[in-house]
Specification:
Elements: H1 2-21, E1 34-39, H2 49-64, E2 68-73, H3 80-91, E3 96-100, H4 105-114, E4 119-123, E5 132-137, H5 139-153, E6 158-163, H6 168-184, E7 189-194, H7 201-213, E8 218-222, H8 227-235, E9 238-243, E10 254-260, H9 263-275, E11 282-285, E12 292-295, H10 303-318, E13 331-332, E14 338-340, H11 348-352, E15 361-362
Parallel strand pairs: 1-2, 1-3, 3-4, 4-5, 5-11, 6-7, 6-8, 7-15, 8-9, 9-10
Antiparallel strand pairs: 10-12, 13-14
Helix pairs in contact: 2-9, 3-4, 5-6, 5-10, 7-8
Length: 367
């Protein structure tokens, strides 16, 4: 009897260890659900950046059931407010915290130093620590594909781009979109407006209207609301949805959507905490990994355009096409300087440090 009891206790301890009790939970409460929290930079809406991460949270809850208890805090400003919220979530017993916004990177690292037993997932950040992992997606791959579609649909050869902040991730998207357009329409130009905010629907709409007034008949954007799509619908123009499908907002204006899928990644990271295999690291997934996809074509987009874009998406997934690869001619920036030599492809470190705008973009990185 005593031998069986001892064996049972050993097994219970091992089970608790592999569930992460060594760093976060005691043997006594090892069967309690994993508490995972998400911090959102804007309110939760029915489309956009935060919407996609909320879908990711719901995917975790659905996949893991009563093994996990998830929560979120919305509309948290980057900076001191973010650090306060993240710190509060750690104090509340959350042992896995997702912080999906670039401006949350430093606040996440600051809190992580004080809570070494909590795991943090910095989404779109690039700095890591023993208990901080970083993940991002190759959004630029979807942007390149969207540029092809935009060029096919444009009659003016002019596109507009409403951008949040001039960080490398956004710059990559602007350049990839422009290169995608010019791959099928060498005359194409892209007019750029910086907002220095991720979420301000009124200003996003004003910027869209300004670009339409300047001759653009198709828009792309890197902000968090659906305002640009609504403006395109109102003006009878075209737009590329970003983050998620926005046809319910702009049924006649949407060319396609560049969507980001976080459910699989988030679920795998929660499982890793539960089974004790979580490790800090970095991931930069794209079309091949299913983290970035184009689709949700508008009803007025010809099948020939849809087929072309989907074929190029398959090429990217197979490694036959790269957004930042020069052909027989070098790629130059919009000051005339060669930035990709003929026949060359930018490396990941070069893409991650991108600090130029390619030929065809009308604007500057410093807004």
């Amino acid at each position: 009897m005593y031998k069986n009891l001892a064996a049972t206790r050993v097994a219970a301890c091992l089970l608790a260890f592999f569930a992460g009790c060594a760093s976060a939970r005691s043997t006594a409460d090892a069967t309690a659900p994993l508490k995972a929290a998400f911090v959102y930079v804007t309110p939760v809406t029915d489309a956009g950046w935060v919407h996609q991460h909320e879908l990711g949270r719901l995917a975790v809850q659905k996949a893991l059931g009563d093994k996990v208890q998830t929560s979120f805090v919305e509309a948290v400003a980057e900076g001191p407010d973010a650090e306060r919220v993240i710190r509060d979530l750690a104090r509340q017993g959350n042992t896995l915290i997702f912080t999906p916004s670039f401006g949350y990177m430093e606040p996440t690292l600051a809190v992580a130093r004080d809570f070494p037993s909590v795991r943090f997932e910095s989404i779109t950040g690039y700095k890591t620590a023993a208990n901080v992992s970083a993940a991002n997606a190759r959004y630029y791959e979807g942007r390149y594909l969207a540029g092809i579609a935009a060029a096919r649909m444009s009659k003016t050869h002019v596109a507009g781009y409403v951008a949040g902040f001039p960080i490398p991730e956004v710059v990559q998207g602007i350049n990839a979109f422009t290169l995608g357009m010019r791959a099928v329409d060498p005359q194409a130009t892209v007019k750029l407006i910086w907002l220095n905010t991720w979420f301000d629907p009124a200003r996003e709409r004003d910027a869209a209207m300004t670009l339409f007034n300047q001759g653009a008949d198709v828009l792309a954007f890197h902000t968090a609301s659906t305002a640009v799509m609504a403006a395109a619908q109102e003006r009878g123009k075209w737009a590329v949805a970003y983050h998620s499908d926005m046809r319910h907002i702009a049924p006649d204006a949407q060319i396609l959507a560049v969507t980001h899928e976080w459910g699989t990644y988030y679920t795998s990271r929660a499982r890793a905490v539960l089974d004790g295999s979580w490790k800090s690291g970095t991931i930069w997934g794209g079309v091949k990994e299913g983290m970035v996809q184009v689709g949700s074509f508008g009803g007025k987009v010809p099948k020939s355009v849809q087929d072309e874009v989907l074929a190029r998406q398959r090429d990217i997934a197979a490694g036959r096409l790269h957004a930042f690869q020069a052909g027989a001619a070098a790629v130059r920036d919009n000051t005339g300087r060669v930035v990709i030599a003929a026949g060359q492809t930018l490396s990941d470190p070069q893409i991650l440090a991108m600090d130029f705008l390619v030929e065809g973009v009308q604007g500057k990185i410093a807004p």
